[in-house]
Every structure is written in C-alpha cells, then in structure tokens.
Amino acid sequence: MTPPYYDQLAEWTDIVPESEIRRLLLYNVKYYFGGGKPGALPIDTFKTILRQIADNLDTTGIDILNYGPTSGLLSLKTVLGERMKRIEGIEIPRGPDDILITSGSQQMLYALLDTLIRPKDVIVMARPSYLGFVVPVTKLGGNVLTVPSDIDGLIPEHVEKAINVCKRELNRTPKAIYVVSDSDNPKGTTLPEKRRKALFDIAVENEILLIEDAAYREIQFGKIPPPIKKYDPENKWVAYLRTSSKEAAVLRLGYSILPEEIMTPVIKDKGYLDLCTSSFIQKMLEIYYANHIDNVLADNLKIYKRRRDAMKKMIETYFPSNGFSTTPTGGFFFWFQMENESFDSGKFMQEKAIPNNVLYVPGKAFYPIKGYSISAGDSKLHGNRIKTNGMRISYSFVSSQMILEGMEILGKLLQKEV
Ligand SMILES: Cc1ncc(COP(=O)(O)O)c(C=O)c1O
Fold first, then answer.
1. Which of 36, 229, 273, 300 is the residue whose CA sits 20 to 30 A from 167?
2. Cα separation of 318 and 403, whole Å?
3. 245 CA distance to ligand 1 centroid (A)?
C-alpha cells in the first residue's frame, strides 16, 4: 500500500523539473562539454593551505571545526571586501557588514529570491538565462519575464519596455532585474559599459533591485568594463554576487554585497537553510584570497584561454556556417544556435551526440518552464517562449586536444543536419 504522503508532496514537485545540468552529469562521455566545471584547479596551492591549517589546528580548531556566524567569518569578509575595492573599485559603505558569505552563490540566489518574492511578483531577465536562477523564481511563486538578448547580452531598451508593459498590463512593477554581466551563462556574452550604466539607471529610475551575478568576473582573458555594482557606491540598488567556484575551487562558498535593507532577512533565511557555511572552508579560502589568488589565476587563465581558442577554431572550421555563435572573452561557455528554428538540440544530443561520445547542454534548459516574454517587434506581453535550436558548449573542463577532437565530431554531425 502507498502511504498517502506520496501523493501529497508540495505542489512545486509537480512543476519543477530536475536540473538538466545535474541530470547530464550522469553520462560518462569522452568529450564532456556539459556543466561549467573548472578544469584548472590549484591543487598544489590547496595542499600548502591545508598544511598551514593543520599546523595551527591546535589553537584554531576550536573555532574552525565549529559553527560560526550565519553571515560568515569577519576575517574572510574583510579580505574579500578589500580585494573587491582594490581590484574593481567597489565602495562598500559598512565594510564587512555589507558582505554575506553563503554556501555557494547558488544559495545566495535562492535565499535572495526566497526573501524577495511575493506571489505573482515579476523578475526580468534575458532570454536565455542561467537555469539555476530561472527555475527557483517559478518554484518560489514568482513569474519570469524574459526579454531578447543579442551578441552583447541583455538589451537595456527591452528591459525598459518589459518594465513598462508589466506596469501597464499586469498593474505591477517588476521586483528585480537579473543579469550576468561578465561572460554570461549560458551565452558567454559580456555587457559593454554603456549597457551596464543604462541598466543601472533603469533600476534606479524604476526603484527595482538589480541582481548582478558576477560568477565569471575573474575568469577573463582581457580587460572588461567595471561591474554594475561600481555605479552604486551607496549600496542601495545592486545585489552583487560572487563565487569562489570558478576562481578558486568548488568548495561551495559564495560572497555577495547586499543592500542593508535586505541583508537582515536574507541572513535570517540562510540561518534556516544551513545555519552557517563551513568555517573550515571559509578559513581555507581566506588564506587563498589573502595570499595566492593572483598567482593561481595568472596560470589558470592561460589554460582556459587555450581551450577557448581551440573551441573557437573548431566552431569556425567545422560548424554549419549559417549558424550563430558567440565568442566569449572569458568565462566557460560558447553558445551555438542552428539557423533552423525547428532543430531540437536535446533530441539531437540523445540520438547523435551522446552515441558519439559528445555532451553539451541543450539550450532549452535555459528557458523558463512558464512565465511571460517580450519580443523585439511589439510592445505587448506574450506568453512564455522556448527555443530548442541553441546549445551551450563548455570549454572549461577538458584539454585543448580533447576539444579539438570532440568539436570536430560535433561539427560534422551538425553539418549533416543542415
Ligand atoms: C551564472 C552563475 N551563477 C551562479 C552559479 C552558482 O555557482 P556556485 O553555487 O558554485 O557558487 C553558477 C554556476 O555555474 C553560474 O554559472
């Protein structure tokens, strides 16, 4: 007999799909262009850090093997705040009190949405967008409103139009705008400076929170414009999210600057999610950010750039020339879109790519399961829009040689579909 609770789980369990990226991790393929896994990890550096911690554990163990403050260790927040100020010129009015440590930036995204969203609230974002943000909006009872994006990312004119349409047709102002300004996930686009300023101005003018997810801020092969957060010295309009996952190691630690007004409820939320982020991991990363990051990044960026260059070359050589490809200047991803809109990159992957040992993430995963959209052609609110002809291809994890081999296979398979 089935216990009754089997059929009475929370409503979201019926509407929210399993994360496509988590699901794809189950496949064991030779050419892995799937999740945004770092492939250049500072193993020697972490061996040194662990030895240093071990040597001091007699005195520090009582604290770092213990529960710590929900908002994070003061010493780590001080190091991170000074670095963001020195490198990016970001003003942090209350110093470490404006910084929150979370268990991955994913926890921050979730806790922030959990704190912001009232039923039917609208969040504006690019189409496509990072699925780890898109799906929780729906799960928590909000509505996603997507706007078209181009080769430079989110387009401010469409964001402005979306806000006006939302006010007119739904009688409400959107709660937040979400943007990955540097080497976006999934498209790999980087916002030009003019768009950054325009988005900030739109947020202030309409009194909307701007969520700037800067996961790939330090994985850059050249100079990029300053973060949008730099326009917000009073720390009022921009929630600025960073993570150690790409620039250090996947130790599950995120660090964010939040406006004072939302800091307290978000900490309250985190307190019920995990009590605190591991103190031991925080101590490891404090030493990394204080003493090692610059040297480590200089080496790792050379590796990622070589892989980016290899992937670019193979897309140019073997992929259908009538398709659309972005060229990332950092981060982990290319986005390739077949010209034929009825092409289904999910079906193609199951039937053609995986049997040939190649894996990427089908583009459909980055479109919301439900919600609203704005099109370039008119000023009306439309239903949800999903495209199936795109694919996110990651160059972060496998060697340049594997990229050359796997991308030739993928390109030739795609050519046959044209
Ligand atoms: C844009 C973006 N934001 C947030 C995250 C979450 O990262 P983490 O939870 O590892 O900090 C990712 C992970 O890939 C990402 O690509």
1. 229
2. 12
3. 7
The model's pLDDT over 192-205, given as tens digits with 9 standing for 90+, comes to 999 999 999 999 99
- Other Cβ atoms less than 10 A from the Cβ of 177: the count is 29
Domain residue ranges of the chain, discontinuous segments joined by +: 4-43+294-417, 67-290
Helix (H) or strand (E) holding 402: helix 400-417
* Mean pLDDT in residue range 142-159: 97
| CA 103 to ligand 1: nearest atom | 9
Reported as a single tens digit per residue, the pLDDT across 209-220 is 999 999 999 999
Q: How far is the CA of 107 from the centre of ligand 1 (A)?
A: 9
**With contact defined as beta carbons under 8 Å apart, do 255 and 80 qualify?**
yes
Q: Tokens 């050419």 sit at which residue?
A: 31
CATH class held by domain 67-290: alpha beta
Q: From the CA of 107, give the closest atom in ligand 1.
A: 9
The CATH number assigned to the domain with range 4-43+294-417 reads 3.90.1150.10
Cβ < 6 A, ligand 1 pocket: 36, 104-106, 130, 132, 180, 185, 213, 215, 243, 245, 254
Q: 284: pLDDT confidence band, cut at 50, 70 and 90?
A: very high
